[in-house]
Amino acid sequence: MIRVHGGFANRMYRLDTDQGSFAVKELNLVDRRWTYRVDDVFRFERAAFAAGIPMPEPISASHDTLVHRWVEGEKVPEAPVSAAYAFEIGEILARIHALDVAWTHVSIEEPTSRDWSELAARAAATQQPWADELASHVETFLAIARFVDTCERPGPVVLTHRDIQPWNLLAREGRPVVLDWELSGMLDLSGELGSTALSLAKGPGFDDIKPAIFRSVLDGYVAGRGALPPSGPSWFVFMIGGWLGHTRWNILRCLAGVEASTGPDLALSHESVRNGVRGLPDLFGRLPELEALLV
């Protein structure tokens, strides 16, 4: 197997055989942020593939390894996609949400961690390269945590992919292929739509958001017979909360200072921390601007 670098949570390999090529994903079992629901996710993937959702064929799943047929395609850069690509993603989401698949797991949301002062102190004591930036944003991170815990979600709750971002997409002849389904589960519809539309309508930061691309995702969703939920901050709370948790998880990996045997390389964890410490306060401060995209 050949290692394919760049995974933010797990490790990926390509396996070429006389029966074709396969993507073999080694799941991080050392410090997962949640329990992976192998049977539920695999059943959901099989149903989506059978329904014609453009995605790699799921081959097998165990507690530590996922196997899919390898799909050739172009990586999607972190930049605004074309209107046609965004529209088709909206249609795909509507088709995913219309699937009739049993989901046995009911998640219980735990309060968002509030230990940012402690993490900043530990970062300073261990001379992390981003320690000063983290310390300067502690109050903002606490405010973000309060927002994540108190923001009202209007519903409906749908079974969905939960992580359609540029790094989980390919372009094959200009059309989408949806990768990396292991975060699948139940989610408030506004959070799924807001996270997806915003990620496809912007570059690495938030200075170049294309409202027309954001709206194209929603137009595609409506064209696919999906109904849009009410406007409000709930459209962005899932993206903010997920990024907050991802940043904290990588901070803990960096504080440990050890190259773990699974999950992202330590250098990638440092990069993720820097991106979160700089990007999250910016994203949180732009909430009113983002809500204006929904009008």
Topology summary:
Blueprint: E1 2-4, E2 11-17, E3 20-26, H1 38-50, E4 58-61, E5 65-69, E6 74-75, H2 83-97, H3 116-125, H4 131-136, H5 138-150, E7 157-160, E8 169-172, E9 175-178, E10 185-188, H6 189-200, H7 211-223, H8 234-256, H9 266-285, H10 287-291
Antiparallel strand pairs: 1-2, 2-3, 3-5, 4-5, 6-8, 7-10, 8-9
Summarize the structure.
The chain contains 10 helices and 10 strands. The protein has 295 residues and is an alpha+beta fold.
Annotation field: number of helices: 10
Overall geometry comes to globular
What is the arithmetic mean of pLDDT?
93
As a whole number of angstroms, the C-alpha radius of gyration is 19 Å
Question: CA-to-CA gap between the ends?
Answer: 49 Å
Share of residues in strands: 5-15%
Question: Which sheet architecture does the biggest sheet show?
Answer: 5 strands, antiparallel
Strand line-up across the major sheet: 1-2-3-5-4
Annotation keywords:
single chain; 10 helices; 3-stranded antiparallel beta sheet; 5-stranded antiparallel beta sheet; alpha+beta; 295 residues
